[in-house]
Amino acid sequence: MKTDDLIRLMAEDARPGLPLRRALAVALVAGMGLAVTLFSLELGFREGLLQAMQTPRVLVKIAVVLLLSIIALVLVSRAGRPDADLARPARALLVPVAIIVVAVAAEFLVLPEADWRANLIGHNAVACLVMVVLMGAGPLAALLMALKRGAPESPARAGAIAGLAAGALAATLYALHCPDDSPFFVAAWYSIAIGALTLVGALAGSRVLRW
Amino acid sequence: MTRHARDEEWESWLRAALNGDAAAYDRFLRAVTPHLRALARRRVAAFGAAPAEAEDLVQEVLLAIHLKRTSWDPARPLRPWLGAIVRNKLIDSLRRRGRHAAVPIEDVMEMLAAETDAREDDRRDAAQLLQQLKEPQRSIVRAISLDGVPVRETAERLKMSEGAVRVALHRALKTLAALYGSTER
Q: Most buried residue, A47, A92, A152, B21, by most Cβ within 10 Å?
């Protein structure tokens, strides 16, 4: 085929469709719609959430997942652009990690050793894993679909970023429900759930986001 | 024209194109192509592949620009985006060609000398490419690209709605991009 003929074809296919940014915004709203529906059907807010939020453990828990969500969303907004700088927002991820590390260290200091195990295992670790992954599935699928419009430098990395964002958002919702507030619990189970979604995102991304 | 002025011109054309201006889009693609070609020729020659393969690469890059153009943020400069798209496609194609045997340097020099003779005709036979498309994509691509019939008339000719022709055309371009990107040549 001559290049000239190909250009004619492309010029006739002139409607570009949604810009990537807007597609991502739509995906986020749709995905979170699913997650919030699941949240209100199956979980709901914990009792006395407002009072609980005045205690340092709950504050730290919510701050960490919220901060992680915000940074991950900044990364998502750039992941589909081949010319984007991902390094700087990626470095910002160290902040929530540092907060939780410090919180875990503080917990070691203030909790008697006899209580460590109970605080790590909490009331319902399995529910945490299952519900965070389930609530994250919708946002992950929607973000991956939107990212297909993009041209990511690394498809696996873009998928992982989508998984991280979906996991962090789902964890934020779950944090509003779960009565387990110890940094031990958050560092262990939230990380596993978010990590699992990140891994799924990377695997899916390396397949569906190739271009 | 200065590099800066050219960049601005390309940006304004692609910006208009993203708002649905087909004529501006056509201008943009035609302005970018000779630059892509010069670059592709240099890379292909450096790798010791046949000069005609450069045109394959040009078309592959053009298809990537086309299918991924909404990932350019019009508030940002175009050059880094374009450069990243081109680089990615060059790396892809070098990887694929990495499986072929290298060509000795004397042959490369000969090819470089002959480069000005290489016309833009692609090694890929249009008929062969078309064969890999399904109907109605094949008829649509043939009508628009080879016969130069616009979408509206193509729709009348094939007794399809304009929208259906547009959808099929877009799918056909995706299929073509996949064909270029596949390892079989």
A: A152
Q: How far is CA B36 from CA A99, B74, B89, B90, B157, in A?
A: 48, 21, 11, 11, 34
Q: Which residue's entry shows tokens 């540092």?
A: A98
Summarize pLDDT for A22-65 with one digit per residue, the tens. 999 999 999 999 999 999 999 989 888 888 888 899 999 999 99
pLDDT tier for residue A175 given thresholds of 50, 70 and 90:
very high
Copy the structure tokens of residue A43: 């979980």
Residue B101: pLDDT band with limits 50, 70, 90: very low
CA distance B20 to chain A (A): 5
3-class DSSP state of B106: helix
Residues 26-65 of B with CB under 8 A from A: 26, 29-30, 33, 37, 55, 58-59, 62-64
- Evaluate whether ipTM surpasses 0.90: no
Query: Which residue type occupies B50?
Result: A
Integer CA distances (angstroms), A43 to A37, A135, A184, A195, B28, in order: 10, 11, 22, 22, 53
CB contact under 8 A, A151 and B88: yes
CB atoms within 10 A of CB B145: 24
- B119 or A201: which leads in pLDDT: A201
Candidates 1.10.1740.10, 3.40.50.300, 3.60.140.10, 1.20.272.10; CATH matching B1-123: 1.10.1740.10
The reply to whether residue B18 touches residue A23, judged by beta carbons under 8 angstroms, is no
Contacts of A2 (CB under 8 A, 6+ apart): B120, B121, B122, B126
Question: Which residues does chain B have within 8 Å of residue A15's beta carbon, measured at their own beta carbons?
Answer: 20, 166
Min Cα separation A142/chain B (Å): 17
What span, in angstroms and rounded, lies between the C-alpha atoms of A138 and A206?
19
Q: What's the pLDDT at B110?
A: 38
Give domain limits for chain B: 1-123, 124-185
Q: What are phi and psi of B97, to 5 degrees?
A: -75, -20
Distance from CA of A84 to the nearest CA of B (A): 8
Under a CB-based contact definition with an 8 Å cutoff, are residues A71 and A89 in contact?
yes
Written as one letter, the residue type at B75 is: A
Q: Domain residue spans in chain A?
A: 17-208
